[in-house]
């Protein structure tokens, strides 16, 4: 079934959410941007690279040694991270994405209620692989000389989270009584 992604009445692209369903509240598929969607892709995929930059700071051994344990609030970013430009970029990126007011619509144009929509740039994700893993990926995606050429995979993937029960690895709420 075709689905479309919209922002404030503007078509950003389409997907079939055709990947294998692992959880009833989470669907994925290839995302094919419209011409306008192609222009707005830096906003749609922006949180991924920004989160990588903040993650690099969080793993910095010097920062982690120098970070005081008592100044952190559970669930909050450490104070030394919140003062960086990388953190500001992440917050800005998330705010920009939220301001797009993304909507998923079905083939009839009806709005589907979602909790979250995320779009990933596979070129960026490929850059996260080690050199050895990238070579393996390239080998697997290159046909042998006697095989017909492969259609290139789309560059973007979309993930959609629907309201409902949490993922299976979350603990069940306590049962009264």
What does this structure look like?
This protein has one domain (3-161). Helix 2 runs antiparallel to helix 5 (85-99). Strand 4 and strand 5 form a beta hairpin. The chain is an alpha+beta fold and 177 residues long. The chain starts with a strand and ends in a 16-residue tail after the last strand. The chain has helices at residues 35-45, 47-59, 61-66, 79-82, 85-99, 122-127, 131-140; strands at 3-7, 10-15, 26-33, 102-105, 111-112, 116-121, 156-161.
Topology:
Elements: E1 3-7, E2 10-15, E3 26-33, H1 35-45, H2 47-59, H3 61-66, H4 79-82, H5 85-99, E4 102-105, E5 111-112, E6 116-121, H6 122-127, H7 131-140, E7 156-161
Antiparallel strand pairs: 1-2, 1-4, 2-3, 3-7, 4-5, 6-7
Helix pairs in contact: 2-5
Attribute tags:
177 residues, alpha+beta, 37% helix, 21% strand, disordered C terminus
Strand content: 15-25%
Mean pLDDT: 84
E-strand count: 7
Which sequence of SSEs, written as H and E, runs from N to C? EEEHHHHHEEEHHE
Biggest pleated sheet:
7 strands, antiparallel
* C-alpha termini separation: 44 Å
Shape, per Cα inertia axes: globular
What quaternary form is this?
A: single chain
């Amino acid at each position: 079934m075709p689905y479309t992604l919209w922002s404030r009445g503007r078509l950003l692209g389409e997907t079939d959410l055709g990947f294998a369903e692992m959880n009833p509240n989470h669907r994925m598929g290839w995302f094919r941007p419209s011409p306008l969607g192609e222009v707005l892709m830096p906003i749609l995929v922006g949180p991924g690279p920004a989160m990588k930059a903040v993650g690099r700071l969080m793993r910095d051994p010097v920062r982690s040694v120098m970070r005081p344990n008592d100044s952190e609030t559970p669930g909050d970013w450490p104070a030394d991270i919140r003062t960086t430009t990388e953190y500001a970029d992440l917050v800005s990126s998330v705010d920009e994405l939220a301001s797009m007011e993304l909507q998923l619509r079905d083939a009839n144009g009806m709005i589907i209620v979602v909790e979250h929509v995320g779009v990933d740039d596979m070129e960026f994700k490929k850059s996260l692989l080690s050199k050895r893993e990238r070579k393996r990926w390239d080998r697997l995606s290159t046909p042998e000389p006697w095989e017909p050429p492969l259609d290139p995979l789309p560059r973007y993937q979309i993930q959609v989270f629907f309201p409902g029960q949490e993922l299976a690895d979350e603990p069940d709420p306590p049962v009264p009584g």
